[in-house]
Specification:
The protein is α+β, with helices and mostly antiparallel strands. The chain is built from 7 helices and 8 strands; from the N terminus they run ββαββββββαααααα. The strands form 4 sheets. Strands 1-2 form a two-stranded antiparallel ribbon.
Length: 213
Amino acid sequence: MMNVLAYADDLVLLAPSWIALQSLLDILDINIKTVDIACNTNKTVCMIFKPACRHNVVCDNFPSFMLSRQCLQTINEFKYLGHIVNNDCTDDNDINREIRNLYARTNILNRRFSRCSVSVKLILFKSYCLCLYDAALWTSFNTGTMDRLKACYNKCIKIFFGYSRMYSVTNMLSELGLPSFVCLIDKCQSSFRKQWQSSGNTIVTHLVNLCIN
């Protein structure tokens, strides 16, 4: 059972039931006092993940979790390390976040560097708009949501490089030497797969073995 994940000053506790998570919180409360640190209960939240099959739902309402005699907020969505996690385990909200960010970055680049040469624009666009790191984590989403991200990607290229709305996307990508949306997603997923398969972290190695088997 791997139920404690730590990254820098962030801590994630995982448990299969309400009583199990409350027990972990009690253990946390005891141990943080021994090292003279405190948890910010205003920023500490809890999430109850829904089972994939609705017939497996045991209860919809649970007592509030407690930490340091303070009630913790229970939420349905949380942004952790830049990635939006939902209690229904879908990625649509995170994809929509990426759509908003891509439009925002493109508009900033277009306002500041619209008069630059194509070669300079290519460097800027590749540096700021092709970094879809979360794409490798997307596994459950509506096709329409991904189609909107694809349309956003193509539209942003046309806006920044001055192409008309009706110009062929294939010709545009060929002229600029930019990857298609499908190739960009495949590259992100392939790069991520290589990294976690070669990782020396025991937790990551365990997850890799689960996926392979």
